[in-house]
Amino acid sequence: MADPSDLVERLAQHRTLGGVPRKELEWLVDHGELVRMEPGELLTKVPRMVESLSILLSGHFAIYVDHGAGPHKVMEWSGGDVSGFLPYSRMGKPPGETVIDEAGDVVLVNVRHFPEMIRECSAVTTKLVHVMLDRARQFRSSELQDEKMLSLGKLSAGLAHELNNPASAAARSARLLNEALDEGEAAAHALGAARLDAAQLAAVANARVACATAAPAALAPLARADREDTIADWLVEHGADANAAASLADTGVTMQSLDALAAMLDGGTLNVALRWVAAGCTTRALAADVERAATRIHNLVGAIKRFTYMDRAQVPEPVDVVESLNDSLALLLHKARKKSVEVKVTSEPELPPARAIGGDLNQIWTNLIDNAVDAVSESGRVIVSAARHLNFVVVRIEDNGCGIPDGIRDRIFDPFVTTKPVGQGTGLGLDIARQLIRRNNGDIEVESQPGRTEFRVTLPIAADALSAS
Predict the structure, then answer these.
(1) What does the pLDDT read at residue 197?
(2) Do 353 and 269 belong to one domain?
(3) 154 within some domain
């Protein structure tokens, strides 16, 4: 057993507690237990409660937290540090496991002695409270970074899918466009060889103008198939190639315009003319597909750049809240589609910008919308709205899920509290969101009952917008 006087001397040399009155060090020795820890042992273990203050005399310890991507080190201590449960701390279960990396000696003081320690050891208590505040700041900073990385990880799979779809469509349409151009050239040569007169050429040109217009309405698959069949039947009846029906069905070509063309041309020239018209329709349609796909990719890349605020300083500035919401939603759409969840964003006209750090807002919306999508069942609904109230922008994120259980509703913003199944949530998302909202001088509230949960975020309007209104 260690000599108490030797242990007091070791505490007097302690980097954190050295300098406190000797009688307080003696109190720690009287009420503490000296323990030798060996490499690989656990000082704290999830999910056991933390029951002791740990005063590290030697060795090296580290805490490893697993938020779903494997354990990683978030904090470490060595001789001269203190860890474990600290006075006035609200910590119960540790966020991770504290592993001994290098053998060392630790003085453990059980929490049952804390009331007496607070009364008898004011200097020790003061130092420990400062340590707790520093630890909380450091750990929250680590949590924020981890949550951002987790959010990006969750978004990456959906984002890859969102980018892959238009990229694949563009590549496919570009390949088909080459074939359509070859067909168009061949059709043009055939049309030239037909030696149509001016009136006939004008009729053919008028028919091709329909390729520049969309079909009369966005047709359901069954209605579109019926339209294609009707055109194919007409083509067969007039001795033309029925394969042109697929190209003509998605344009503004009408049966009346086809009848007018047939009245000007005989069977052979009609087929040549329709081949040229169909080739033009196909070429335009494929070019439009490439443009839509490229525009989708361009918009997604723009949303990513705005979401991450690349090349932008992290300082408060006027932020378009609706654009920020739409950018966040763009990166979550794949997840919503997989569950057939309807997500709608609405806002009042000419909504003024909020004064905030743009990257913070995107992290807030991602956490809240992601939670809402998780909370609803298949084919559920999430409604996001933004409006002005006095000198604030108010964003409401409402879902029709089962609601927050009564037992945790009052603790929903506390760290590590989650309604998700084990392994599917860290319990940090709402805590991080609240931290970021407060950093931007805002507020967050929640109302929940079965069938309706609403998170309400209030942010100050940018000063320039206020002065202009």
Answers:
(1) 84
(2) no
(3) no
